[in-house]
Amino acid sequence: MTISTTRRGFTMGLSAIGAAVLTGSLSAPALAQNAKFKLRYGTAFPADHPGTTRIVEASKAIAAETAGAVDLQVYPNSQLGSEPDMFTQTRTGALDFMSTSGANQTVVPVGGINALAFAFENYAKVWAAMDGGLGDHVRAQFAKVGLFVLPKMLDNGYRNITSSAKPVAAPDDLKGFKMRVPGNQLWVTAFKALGAAPTAINFGELYAALQTHVVDGQENPLALIESAKLYEVQKYIALSGHIWDGHHIFANQKKLAALPADIRTSIEKNLNTAALRQRGDIATLNDTLTTKLTGLGAVISTPAKQPFRDVLKASGFYAEWRGKFGDEAWTQLEKYTGALT
Predict the structure, then answer these.
(1) pLDDT grade for 206, boundaries at 50, 70 and 90
(2) Does pLDDT of 3 surpass 90?
(3) What does the pLDDT average to over 106-112?
(4) Is the same domain home to 192 and 228?
(5) Judgement on whether residues 124 and 75 belong to the same structural domain of the protein
(6) Are 234 and 273 within one domain?
(7) Are 65 and 26 in contact (CB under 8 A)?
(8) Cβ–Cβ under 8 Å, residues 105 and 84
(9) Containing domain of residue 333, as a range?
(10) pLDDT more than 70, % of the chain
(11) Would you call 316 helix, strand, or coil by DSSP?
């Protein structure tokens, strides 16, 4: 998912770093000003999102551990380009690190497999898969195109469906439903298979599109539903959890390999730790937001997932994407999700 820089402020109340939206990079303190290794990390997350604040925290830890030898400068808010742009920059070596969803690139199609609709029932299965065999398979494919992927992913949350007229409780509620989705084909084909009419609209234009009923609804993680105030024009929130999406942390393989071993060890250790802590931040945030959104007038429901999965299976959606992702990846996926085809 591409995160728009036009999004309204992402005010979470988290105290991980307490960063505000800044111009320029967020980097370690004076200790790293004369660093031997100056590295750049790009992200689309806002500066006060845990996906940024925890990386800044890691940057400070790396600077301290290496006695100032490493200055990892963090650029939030897509300052270094769109997520596909930063992905390309990291592949070519123009950028050292970046994070994005595997579904935001086309170089390694299997990179988006974790975002398969209604595949993962809960976080326990997500992390077992992505920290385990499925994640290992995906990371190995990125290595073939010159990218090192950190073993631990950042959490971008489960996506949920909002609507204005009535809650989405079952697949039939999506028939003819004009649904705003990102332009990614994994999203588009899933909602078409469910009978909806998916429409690509830029995130910055979404509030107005919902307000004027250009579309009937949309789907996003709770954090974005709250921060963009979509609940003001979408009364109903169905905790469908239809797609789980996370951000891989990518590094240029050659540039990382050229660093001294102790430097690489410090970077990898602290970035992995940052990802694990960020997951905890998102879990806390999600619990808080359910209560907060209810207090703001949203009507929240939790539809059963199996009926949606059954429709996708019957439509041939899973069979289609098994062909695109390949049997080896699909076998790894079904170890954690159970049979999908």
Answers:
(1) very high
(2) no
(3) 95
(4) yes
(5) yes
(6) no
(7) no
(8) yes
(9) 159-242+294-337
(10) 91
(11) coil
Average pLDDT score over residue span 67-91:
94
79 and 128 in a common domain: yes
Cβ neighbors of 117 (< 8 A, separation 6 or more) are: 186, 187, 190, 242, 243, 308, 312, 317
pLDDT tens figures, 132-181: 999 999 999 999 999 999 999 999 999 999 999 999 999 999 999 999 99
To the nearest 10°, the Cα dihedral for 141, 147, 151, 153? Answer: -100
> Rounded to whole angstroms, how far apart are CA atoms 134 and 63?
32
172 half-sphere exposure, CB direction, 13 A CA radius:
0
In a domain, 118, yes or no: yes
The helix/strand count (H/E) of the chain reads as 12, 10
As a whole number of angstroms, the distance between CA 90 and CA 42 comes to 9
Same structural domain for residues 52 and 122?
yes
Residue 15 lies in a domain: no
Do 225 and 270 belong together in one domain? no
d(CA 312, CA 216) in angstroms, rounded, equals 21
Quick one: 129 and 43 in the same domain? yes
**pTM for the whole thing?**
0.88
CA distance readout (Å), 321 to 117, 315, 327, 333, 341: 10, 12, 10, 12, 10
Is the separation of the CB atoms in 16 and 54 below 8 Å? yes
Residue 12 falls within a domain, yes or no? no
Domain count, the chain: 2
Nearest to 124 by CA among 326, 337, 339: 337
| Percentage with pLDDT > 90 across the chain | 80
- On whether both 62 and 105 belong to a single domain, the answer is yes
Domain with residue 316: its CATH number is: 3.40.190.170
CA–CA distance, 102 with 115 (Å, rounded to integer): 8
